[in-house]
Design goal:
By secondary structure, the protein is an alpha/beta fold. 32% of the residues lie in helices and 22% in strands.
Length: 485
Amino acid sequence: MPIKINYSKKTLNKSSSNIVLFANEKFNINSLKKILSVSEFSYINDLLKSSDLKKNILVFEVNSKKKIILISIKNNLKTSDIESLGAEFYGRINHGKNSEYFINTDTVTSKERNFTSHFLHGLKLKSYEFKKYKTKKNTRLISINIIGNKNKPSTQNQIKFKALEEGTFFARDLVSEPGNVLHPDEYARRLGVLRKDGLKITIYDKKKLKKLGMNALLGVGMGSIRGSYLVTMEWNGAKKNTKPLAFVGKGVTFDTGGYSLKPARFMEDMTYDMAGSAAVVGLMKSLALRKAKINAVGVVGLVENMVSGVAQRPGDIVKSYSGKTIEVLNTDAEGRLVLADAITFTEKKYKPKFIIDLATLTGAIIVCLGSEYAGLFSNDDKLSKQIMIAGEKVEEKLWRMPLHKNYDKLMNSKNADMQNINYVGGAGSTTAAQFLQRFIINKTPWAHLDIAGMAFSKYGGALNSGGATGFGVRLLNQLIEENYE
């Protein structure tokens, strides 16, 4: 549902309909006497005596034309709780005919100085819908008027949160597109458009990738009539000699599994196998829009894994960009082949401070963690801790999983330097991460986020209404803000 937020210096008009006011966790409204009329105050105060005060939001119909919405602010709310409260409020106003609301920020009781910014951020994130291909359009626009002199979002916060929302929505849009629309050719074209936001975009097509020796990535896309690409997005907001932060994403726009064909049931969901790359793209867009004071690079490998007479076969051996050879035992373990070349290329070309890759890499991580946590694998304790703390703050949680040299033997091949899958059984997510770690050549701090269970939600979550979540954009932005700006 489209949301328009208007900032006004006007005071609240007592005749206004749909007034949103805040109260403490006990719904004590004594502080609202100067805002409500005597009759309204008395009416609501009487109704509160028989209301369920455990709820966060209570709605009172003062008359046929006026509603007063009371929102309880619990003690010691985290910023993520405030965002969830904003999302809950959106859930209440997303129905019915009312389309205009007045939020009085003077009534905010929270000590969190950015309360209103986080509240509106949660509201906006929850409002996202992908209705592009619906022929019957919903033209309803919800107008939110911010009225009051206190607790109003600063101009800086408005820019920051708008950038985060635009980056997250861009990522969600990319993941939501069907495979016949967002194939690698179209994806690369859309990334080229990001130049207008101030990003330096370089697109390596199949010819350039072949010259570079990115045969692991190219092998995945062999069966498709579409191109295969590596796209780099650079943002330079700090001094030139400052090492960049690097983010790498898996961009398999549709994954049939290749000759190791996936079951037909739910194969339609494999449009979101590029969600790791979408998170990187959304992050880079956000950084550019808010003019982040860091140097960062996003690198995405864009391919389509199809079946055809020229597709890669199980048993093929390819030489990666790093020079290491890989026996492809399973063509459905394709994401790690794309990331292998992209990771080594990023490390060699940009010599970054760290590399974080994101990928919907394994079904095994869903078996392990469900849709509550993404899997985190890393060679660096400090970076891991920073990522996990950032994830807790924005409710994009991670659970650190093990890496150990003993897992290497499961990925060793008799015919090449390594094989792309562990057929002995068990530790599917760990052995995939162990495989990726081999392509960190110069001991760069590195973390791998397996987001297979987090990138798409059938039923919706606190800050999304179902479908693509944009997981990773806000997490990585928080990591950067907190530790590197």
